UniProtKB/TrEMBL annotation:
Pfam families linked to this entry: IclR_C
Superkingdom of origin: Bacteria
Coiled coil: none
Name of the featured protein: IclR-ED domain-containing protein
SUPFAM superfamilies assigned to the protein according to its UniProt record, in alphabetical order: GAF domain-like (SSF55781)
IclR-ED domain sequence ranges: 1-128
One of the protein's GO biological processes: negative regulation of DNA-templated transcription
Length: 141
């Protein structure tokens, strides 16, 4: 098992936190990131831009992102975006751990709900409106 050091920087497309943020960026910013270097860190890392677009659309639909061994073999992640008072994504919050513990059938859905709800509460503390309001603010810019 590979363990990342605290403060290690990994590519956005290899982790749930990065996907949760990028899924909610303005289209031009997302497109620029998809045109960038999409390095593979493991055999499970997704580097195909079309597949990543589909995954990012899924994040927008479900409200959370998943990672399954894409940054480090045996690690998984579940993350949700955090929004500020302007409706812009300002970060993400999530959980990272062994794939067999985080993505087990009896755990994954409950963890996704917990992460999503925590992100929603944090977003509210930052002044974010409801999701429909955030989308309206984001498109008005």
């Amino acid at each position: 098992m590979q363990i990342l050091e605290v403060g290690a920087v990994i590519p956005w497309h290899t982790c749930a936190l990065g996907k949760a943020i990028v899924a909610h960026l303005p289209e031009a910013d997302r497109a620029a990131l998809l045109r960038g270097n999409l390095a593979a860190l493991t055999g499970a890392t997704q580097t195909d831009p079309a597949a990543l677009v589909q995954a990012l659309d899924g994040v927008r639909a479900t409200g959370y992102a998943l990672e399954d061994g894409e940054a480090a073999i045996g690690d998984a992640g579940v993350a949700a975006p955090v929004f500020d008072h302007t409706g812009e994504v300002v970060g993400a919050i999530g959980a990272v751990g062994p794939v067999e513990r985080l993505l087990a059938d009896d755990v994954r859905d409950a963890l996704a709900v917990s992460v999503r709800e925590t992100a929603r509460h944090l977003s509210r503390d930052l002044g974010a409106g409801r999701p429909a309001t955030r989308r309206r603010w984001a498109t008005a810019s």
